[in-house]
Specification:
128 residues; globular; 7% strand; mainly alpha
Length: 128
C-alpha cells in the first residue's frame, strides 16, 4: 500500500493540478472543464487496458500537470485474469463520488474547481 509520505504528496499534487486545469480550460466554462476531465479519465482507462499498467504521472501528463516522485511509483494494474492485486482495475478521478459534496457540486455546476481523488492501486513497480 502507499506510505503516508507518498499519499500526502499525491493529495497536495492533486489540488495543484486541478488549479492548473481551471486556468487552462477557463474556470468560467465549467462544462468544458468537466468534459475535458471525463475524456482524459476515459483515455487513461483505455491506456490501462491496453498496457496492463499506468502510472499516476501518466495521468498527470494527460491533464497538463507536473509530475511528482510519488506519481513515478504509484498507479494502476489491469489484469482481468488475475485479481490477486486487489485493485479496482480502472482509473477513477473521483469526480462522481456521491459521498463527497464538493464533487457533487462540481458535477452539477455549482463549483468550478474540484479536488481530484485518484483511486491508485498503490506502488506498482513490482507488478509490471
Amino acid at each position: 500500500m502507499v506510505s503516508v509520505p507518498l499519499a500526502e504528496e499525491m493529495r497536495s499534487s492533486a489540488v495543484f493540478r486541478v488549479q492548473i486545469i481551471a486556468e487552462i480550460h477557463r474556470a468560467d466554462c465549467h462544462q468544458h472543464t468537466k468534459f475535458f476531465l471525463v475524456q482524459q479519465q476515459n483515455y487513461a482507462n483505455d491506456l490501462l487496458k491496453a498496457r496492463g499498467h499506468l502510472f499516476l504521472n501518466e495521468v498527470y501528463d494527460l491533464i497538463g500537470a507536473r509530475r511528482t516522485k510519488a506519481g513515478a511509483q504509484v498507479g494502476w494494474i489491469y489484469d482481468p485474469e488475475h485479481d490477486h492485486l486487489g485493485g479496482d482495475g480502472f482509473v477513477d478521478f473521483g469526480m462522481f463520488d456521491i459521498d463527497k459534496p464538493k464533487a457533487r457540486d462540481f458535477v452539477n455546476g455549482y463549483e468550478k474547481v474540484i479536488i481530484l481523488d485518484f483511486n491508485v492501486d498503490g506502488v506498482i513497480l513490482d507488478h509490471i
